[in-house]
Amino acid sequence: MNKTIPQIIELIQQQNPLHAKKLKRNLKSLSEDNVVHYQLFVDKYETYLKNIDKNLDFAVDSYLKMISDFVLEQLRFIETGKYSNTSFEEVNNRVYNNPKVMEYFMNGLLLSQVLWKHHYLIYSFFTKNFPTYTKNIKNYLEIGGGHGLFISHAIDVLPVGTKFSLLDISPTSIEISKNFIGKSNVNYILENIFNFEINQKYDFITMGEVLEHVENPVELLVKLKNLLNDLGTIFITTPTNAPSIDHIYLFSNAEEIRSIIDAAGLTVVDDIKAYAEDLPEEKAIELKITMMYGCFLRKQ
After folding, report:
1. Boundary-marking domain end, from 98, 115, 132
2. Which residue, 51, 62, 114, 232, is the most exposed by fewest CB within 10 angstroms?
3. CB-based burial of residue 282 (10 Å sphere; 0-12 exposed, 13-18 middle, 19+ buried)?
4. Same domain, 130 and 276
5. Which residue has the higher pLDDT, 39 or 121?
6. What's the DSSP call for residue 198?
7. 268 pairs with which residues across the strands?
8. Residue 120 buriedness (CB in 10 A; 0-12 / 13-18 / 19+)
9. Nearest-angstrom CA–CA distance, 268 and 116
10. Structural contact between residues 272 and 120, judged by C-beta atoms closer than 8 angstroms
11. Which range marks the domain in which residue 53 is found?
């Protein structure tokens, strides 16, 4: 395995030994199958750092700042049982319209895609299963691209001539995505998805970790359904019990997520649940351990 991520973990250990211990445990738990997709990420990440003229110290600094935010949000969540944000306006002012916060937070989240077990299991699930849904994809849309990880994989897989679009509300996220994706021909759209109007239907739509950022997730899923071709596919991810500086809507379990999917007129074709800790599911639910849920959807 490439030495980049172990080097990053060693740098993290110098500042946060306890957290580094968990990351090392995550690394050891990678299956042989997952290592393939892990390496795909590492190759892209090394190129990304070169594109932005940054080094591993920058990566670690961004990641640890993000971790600090998460710890504070987790403490509030344990005390109140609620997320600290209640409206999109709060989050927009606090995070999306704050380039300084967005830079370290998005770069930290990008690295978490392989440092956190539940994140890289979702990434691996997407990369392994995406080819099943690639027939006749001519128009691909990513909503809330953040760092551009998922669409970058789609660009690798889909044929030349496929039209790609990435929509995000944050200029910082758009810029990070451009540098991570590279020189591929992508239409970048700086827009709130609820204000996005186009006479266009898409064959595949990806939306990673966005449902928890809105006040009405059913309304958002209906928006996606209306942008989707009748035979198209949507891939979404969203977490449960995951306090963060930009999270609004609290999902407590997978059943709550599936219920809003159904209410939006969509149906789950394939899905995955990945918990942040290695515990029996019943115990993880009881302790409100963060779970990442990912699924491929089609119209009912």
Report:
1. 115
2. 51
3. exposed
4. yes
5. 121
6. -
7. 297
8. buried
9. 25
10. no
11. 4-115
